[in-house]
Write a structure and sequence with these properties.
Strand content: 5-15%
Strand order of the largest sheet: 2-1-3-7-8-9
Radius of gyration: 21 Å
Order of helices and strands: HEHEHEEEEHEHEHHEHHH
Number of helices: 10
Largest sheet: 6 strands, mixed
Number of domains: 2
Distance between the termini: 31 Å
CATH topology of the largest domain: Rossmann fold
Oligomer: single chain
Number of strands: 9
Shape: globular
CATH architecture of the largest domain: 3-Layer(aba) Sandwich
């Protein structure tokens, strides 16, 4: 009887674990270092990401070496369509006036190539491109159901970008990066932290900043600087701003978030978006109070069911 109870308890824990398993894969691409100094910097970022993935209980794969480009293409072609994909590029970038490229140990790959590899994938995709000249990748990669983060605003910013160093330290749950104090660091918060960190570096050094990171998660391929994503920043009337989806995504979840399954989190996120849209519609149109509060009640009831079912 004792053994039977033990097996039942063990089985229930395993089932619970699978029920709340993260439907997310992270792929880290480590490029050519060029020098020992940069090699150490890139390796430090890779290790920080690996540690964060371990804390977040998320599968992670590192791609590096002479066959990096071929391995990455193959890996993306076999991506699990049921799982979200985070692709993180760590290394140097180049721009020859026509194409922005990521410097791999073997053959480099450019923005158009990566865009082609990602095109067939329909799941949610996050790309964090930490290399110089990464701004040239934003337009070819941006689109529906995607969050694209680049360390530079254009391919012309070709000097070493420090943005990735600050982003890597934040994504694992750095307390200083947790702006809303919800015990986890979202992609948006990591982006803001890294952007400010890079800007502060140049200010302290008395140097002209050679990198200006962008975030695009509304699919317009324009990207937004961190200054325009602050809580007090004003958006133009009728303009859908970046940052809304990035604010909902985190690699290392808080204890409260862990109580929800991926399906519950996704539904909660969709309902929060719907609530925001409803409030905006009321401000822009002559929606009556009866209609507004009726729709509001429906959404709040659904939101309550999400948490009630956790």
């Amino acid at each position: 009887m004792m053994m039977t109870r033990f097996l039942l308890v063990t089985l229930s824990l395993v089932v619970a674990s699978f029920a709340h398993a993260r439907e997310l894969n992270v792929v880290l691409v480590q490029g050519a270092s060029g020098t020992e100094e940069f090699g150490k910097k890139f390796q430090t970022q890779v290790e920080a990401w690996k540690t964060a993935c371990a804390k977040g209980e998320v599968a992670v794969e590192v791609i590096s070496g002479p066959e990096t480009t071929a391995r990455l293409e193959k890996r993306l072609s076999s991506a699990d369509p049921k799982k979200a994909l985070w692709l993180v590029l760590i290394g140097h970038g180049t721009f020859d006036g026509r194409e922005a490229k990521f410097s791999a140990e073997g053959p480099d790959f450019d923005a158009k190539q990566l865009g082609t590899w990602l095109a067939p994938l329909k799941q949610e995709i996050v790309v964090v491109h930490n290399a110089s000249a990464s701004g040239g990748f934003l337009r070819p990669l941006a689109g529906k159901n995607r969050v694209i983060i680049t360390s530079t605003k254009s391919p012309d910013e070709v000097f070493y970008a420090r943005f990735g160093e600050y982003f890597a330290e934040a994504i694992g749950g750095l307390q200083d990066a947790d702006l809303d104090q919800d015990k986890q660091v979202s992609l948006l918060e990591a982006f803001v932290h890294a952007s400010k960190g890079a800007a502060t570096f140049y200010e302290n050094e008395g140097r002209l900043a050679t990198e200006h990171a962008l975030l695009d998660d509304n699919g317009d391929a324009l990207g937004t600087r961190h200054e325009s994503l602050q809580p007090d920043a004003k958006a133009a009337a009728g303009v859908k701003t970046d940052g809304e989806r990035a604010a909902q995504l985190a690699l290392v979840l808080s204890d409260e978030e862990k109580k929800l399954t991926d399906a519950q989190r996704n539904k909660r996120d969709s309902l929060e978006m719907a609530l925001k849209k409803l409030r905006e519609q009321r401000e822009k149109t002559k929606m009556t109070d009866d209609v507004y509060y009726s729709e509001l009640e429906k959404l709040l009831r659904e939101l309550g069911e999400v948490y009630g079912g956790s």
